């Protein structure tokens, strides 16, 4: 299974070759894999900001506590999720879905009413925890898609979310940053992690068979 080989090949790249850029078609395919991610109730609660502008990537380095990979990578994906649930957001995506499927709007009203009853009485913070979890599904698929294309990536939570939100004006879009994913090609000379063995829990411990 090529996917498993490619997942063995990938690692959380610590040093990128700043001279190696990724073709737009490959970036599009990686973003497409994340777009196809399943989400809770199909609400598609997250978005991806695709950053290739060098100046902007460099502005993000201090926000990422000095992690230079952000600037050296060819592209930076920022995964951002709805800052909260609203009735309008739930209706918008369900109206879009029914329109796309040629169904009458409101076809799923009994279900969306349940979603609204559940989410709208919860705090925005609790709702964001839920929307952010959806972004992680997209992250996993984007990492796998990149590996299939032999493109390196580094999943990143190590940054100041509030500062990044401000820089990217995410609040205006009703979003908050969750994760970043630099994409590029490893610096085969300078990456200390490249030669190290990938370590995971033993298979017999990982899958608990009942
Ligand atoms: C959600 C998440 C956040 C992470 N944040 C960072 C980060 O900010 N900086 C970094 O260098 N690596 C980060 N990593 C990389 C992990 O340390 C790495 O994936 C893990 O040690 C497994 O190694 P591998 O990815 O090389 O197989 C993160 C990984 C995940 C999944």
UniProtKB/TrEMBL annotation:
Q: Gene3D superfamilies, per this entry?
A: NADH Oxidase
One Pfam assignment:
Nitroreductase
Give the cofactors, semicolon-separated.
FMN
**Limits of the Nitroreductase domain:** 8-185
Is Flavoprotein among the key words of this record?
yes
Note the InterPro entries from the entry: NfsB-like, Nitroreductase, Nitroreductase-like
Instruction: Extract the GO molecular function terms from the UniProt entry.
Output: oxidoreductase activity
- Swiss-Prot/TrEMBL keywords: Flavoprotein, FMN, NADP, Oxidoreductase
The reply to whether Transit peptide figures as a keyword in the UniProt entry is no
Instruction: Tell me which SUPFAM superfamilies the record gives.
Output: FMN-dependent nitroreductase-like
User: What PANTHER family does the annotation carry?
Assistant: NAD(P)H NITROREDUCTASE YDGI-RELATED, NITROREDUCTASE
- Family assignment? Belongs to the nitroreductase family.
Recorded protein name is: Nitroreductase
Q: Which organism is it from?
A: Pseudobacter ginsenosidimutans
Upper classification of the organism: Bacteria, Pseudomonadati, Bacteroidota, Chitinophagia, Chitinophagales
